[in-house]
């Protein structure tokens, strides 16, 4: 493609217009551009001759893709990469004013990616390792010429921000273990050599901005005090952009991944309140320095209502998160005083916060992070603590909890942070020993008993009032998963326990008022919303019963009396709802009305729940109540005194009976929402957990009634047509809906385990319980009678058979029937952990019905909604939980089970895998995972469950020429050939399933793995090599066991002269891979944190003996390459001592001796390198202070046309790294 054609295609792709098919064609044509042999030169031509920014953007993104492809195996030479870096800088310098923002960002990303990929590339002219130079680490020298004016300086700052982002976060191409190891090495090196100086560089210029602004306003330039009024300074656009990027640069430094773990502060799996800034020791003096805190606080007072304030607040949030171990007690108090003084100063002039939503959000984050990293006994020691806590209380109630106070709707995340501060500071009172040690009168010094109860009351009352007419608040609290509501109420419930008497009095009063309104209101929509919110509060308050604030709270028994009053009211409401559902409003106050309203009769079948919101709220309430008062946990007699007084409920059994009736009533509704069915089944499952709960449940009449009547007629949600209806009008998928059946029957199975002894006396009851399943399976038998006996077919006939079409029922009806049965039986099987229970289930299955599921798989081999639950059922059936698969010695049950499982896997291999490989595209990630990878994961688990179950002697199959075991192993090989290595290492569940199976096969059938053909063995060995670089210790241990077992088998076979030719061919073919693994393991022991050194030492000895001739020559040179002479001497001496006293055998005793040697080897290396670093200060990060510069930015009234920068960037940031690599570096070849 020529430049004009690319220009035209870019305009079509990025300019809009055209249908999706045209855009897809254009995209495919442009994607092929990166594969051209002259891609580098062509992209430069595109950038030079581009007529539109779209072409410039395409040129930059193509270069990024090009270097992503060449990151592991460089295609471009060192000279080409260096020339390209120079070209990018010249291009940015020349065109920075005319570049579109998205083009500038992409070019900055390209420069950063190029710098990172070439970070450790030595200059070709370097001959002496002691004077080695890394040209790509001198990026700060390249930015010198960008200091001429604000637009150019802004580009330099954007390049620095891009470099920080690139160094900190692994890109999409660094997901493999090997690539991530390289990323971590670069990340740590950049942290130790550049990061601190970049941060100080940004802060110095930011400090000059504040000084100049104060001078312009006639204020003192002293940072120890803040202005009395909030001002909003106006800067020219170019200067404002520079200041904004300086703040972004400082923030990027503070959010850097200091540990090189590959995570960032933006990861959703890390709670924002629990993040810690893991800065190195070199940052200590700057963390203690109060001028940095005063600097960022000053931006609020001088640049209010601008985008600079949220950035400055974000920097303070990170500074408040510095790890506690960096500072001693006095230093922490000093820093805390800086923080609280700045916060209090802002609270006294809060107008700037209330006018800007982002500033308010970051300020509340700062307060929350302050408590997350500080304990209460430290906080009360700050200067003017009473004034600080009172000011914060006023701000919370007057501004944050007041729903209608703001010009904008307050973000729930903002409120979350401030409530988090108060709840955590209250929770500390449960550890009052530290508080009493630091203060003589702990009950009055913290003042929480004065302010926190007021906050709780204000929150409850303000939300109840706002729900009358605030639709936004209602949608926010009662969204799909109600996450925001539950998070807020969990924090309020902790705070409520501080003065529980006052809180319960308010809740009871609100409940009684709403109950009266709810009964009288003709249009109860608004009242129902408020009622729902109040019940959620009651549930969370009771759920906080386990929190004991010993210094202030009333005794637990007295709290139970208050809880009883709340439970009584909710039970009365539940009774009212049931009566409204049945249309039987009874105007009486009979204590037994609650028992008559909720029965086990079938009168609720076909009805509809009266109010889904209230039903869900009541279920939530009783779930919280169960956790505190029912089962193996809580014991309280006082609460039942209150319940008996008002409702006649005397003990736990009566209350459980009412609750179970309510759950079964929900399951009888003909029209039931997704939330309600999930919450109901979940509550029922939770009730069945624990011995005490199950012991009481099985005695209840509702449970006995269900055991004898668990039919689809009684519970419509079990009928297949119910799931079919939901597929058209539901947010929950059919598979998710039917998955609830598994959970439901698992709960029933746990009760049956306690109810039945599974002996002859219980045969009739067991048969009665299994009757619904028997009827369904008998129907399948009739349907599948016309299906041929595939066991009589040969492999060719079996593979070529077409689709089976039944005549007695439609395929969809059979599908729902099969899925329902296997999910129900899987739930029962997972609960049957005793030998008697499992044997009873297996005797029912075989030989009558187990073959049906094989036929079902043959019929539905192309439907993932069928074969996924079917395979999971067989995995559960073959799993030897608690040694339950212990068949009688006179019965061949175990062999029959394995034979049927092997036949199932054979069908999956010949039909499903063959179908998926030809029809499912890899580009559709979701469908590809569901249709292919997910069932493969289950198959790997099935094979492993059979191998480690220890209930089958697999030699019997070979003895009698039964191919079942061989077929099972062939399924494993078929899976290997159909799954790419990148998929195997990219999906965590698949990775774990594969490596655990490899470990098991190595222990059970190492001769099978060792004698595979060369390509298959190489596939396994290469994945094991990648597994050693994984961060998951489980995967590393599995690789160690495989390799140790394999090498022991090799040495044992060679010693006995019985080594097969295929075995030796594999060893000789992949000698390079074995040496690579050896080098990687030694590097991990020397330079990384090797937590499983005992497991690693086992295969390491075998690898050294396997490569003994090369170990002290080639491999030793590879390990020493790239290090200084001093470090080479240390490593060489330690490597020479490694094999002292070790025999050339792989006996267990010899391995133990080698483990001791390798442990001593690691300790000697670490001690020597640590001593070298302490004696050579150049290795440590530079922490020198920055000389003061002249004015960078003049005042708002007199802004110069140029920036008089007198500080050279190269003097602030060292241009070359230290000669000695950091200890944390991992050697990569």
UniProtKB/TrEMBL annotation:
The keyword Transport applies. Belongs to the exportin family. Keywords: Cytoplasm, Nucleus, Protein transport, Transport. Its main location: cytoplasm. This is Exportin-7/Ran-binding protein 17 TPR repeats domain-containing protein. Residues 480-722 form the Exportin-7/Ran-binding protein 17 TPR repeats domain. Gene3D superfamilies: Leucine-rich Repeat Variant. It comes from the Eukaryota. One of its GO terms (molecular function) is nuclear export signal receptor activity. It is found in: Cytoplasm; Nucleus. GO terms for cellular component: cytoplasm; nuclear pore. InterPro entries: ARM-like, ARM-type_fold, TPR_XPO7/RBP17, XPO4/7-like. GO terms for biological process: protein export from nucleus. The keyword Nucleus applies.
